[in-house]
Amino acid sequence: MGSTVLPDKGPRKPAREGMAFRRQPCINGSVPAEARATKPLIPTGVLGMLIFVLTEMMFFFGLISAFVIVKASAPFGWPPPDQPRLPVEITAINSAALVLSGIALYWAHRRFKEREASAKLPFLLAIALGAAFVLVQGGEWAALIGQGLTITSGPLGGFFYLIVGCHAAHAIAAILALGWAFGKLLKGRLEAPAFWTVQTFWYFVVGIWPLLYVEVYL
C-alpha cells in the first residue's frame, strides 16, 4: 500500500507578519519621547493675562497722550486757575503704599515657592495695602467733588476722573482676584500658574500708577 505524499505548502509565515506598525515596548516603564506631552513655557492663564495687560497699557498710553495734548494747548496754563488743586502730597504717600503692596506680593511669591504656608502673611499685607490705596483714592474723590471738581467741570475734571477712575477700576478688579487667590492659598489649593496670573495683573496696576501720578497730579 503506497504512502500518500502531502503537497509542500512552503515555509509557514510567522504570525502577525506584514503588520505595518507594532507597539514598541517601553524600556524600564518609560514613555517614548514622541508620546510625552510638552509642557508650555508660559501657562495659558498667564499668557492670556499678559495679552490683556499689553492691551490695557496701550489704552492708558492713549489716554495719557490725549491728556498731554490738552495740557499743552490750555490757554491759561495748567492746571486751570478756576479748578481745585489736586492732593499731590497725600497721593504721593498713597502711591508709596501701592508700591509697597507690589513688593509684599513679590515677597509672598518668593515664600510660596519655598513653603506655601509662609506666603500667607505677605500675601495678606499686599491685599491690605492695595485696599487702603483704593479707599484713600475714594476719599480724595469725595473731597474733590465737594470742592467743585466734577467730570463736567472742565478738562481737568474730565481727564482726572477718566484716567484715575479707569485705574481704580483695574485696581478693584485686581484686588478681587488677589482675594480669590488668597482664599485658595488658605485652603492649600493655590497652584503656581494661578499665583503667577494674579501677580501679573497686580504688577500692572502697581507699575502703571507712577506714570499716571506724574502726568495727572504734577
Our count of helices gives: 5
The helix-strand sequence is HHHHH
Give the class from helix and strand content and strand pairing.
mainly alpha
Shape: elongated
Q: How large is the share of residues in beta strands? A: under 5%
CATH superfamily of the domain at 44-68 and 92-217: Cytochrome c oxidase, subunit III, four-helix bundle
Q: Describe the biggest sheet?
A: none
Mean pLDDT across every amino acid position: 86
| CATH fold descriptor of the domain at 44-68 and 92-217 | Four Helix Bundle (Hemerythrin (Met), subunit A)
CATH class of the domain at 44-68 and 92-217: Mainly Alpha
Distance between the termini: 123 Å
- For the record, the CATH architecture of the domain at 44-68 and 92-217 stands as Up-down Bundle
Q: Please give the share of residues in helix.
A: 55-70%
Roughly how many Å is the radius of gyration?
Answer: 32 Å
Uncertain runs:
15-27
How many strands in all?
Answer: 0
What does this structure look like?
- The protein has 218 residues and is mostly helical.
- The protein has a domain at 44-68 and 92-217: Four Helix Bundle (Hemerythrin (Met), subunit A) (Up-down Bundle), CATH 1.20.120.80.
- It has helices at 44-72, 88-114, 120-146, 155-186, 192-217.
- The longest helix is centred in the C-terminal third of the chain and has 32 residues, at 155-186.
- It is elongated.
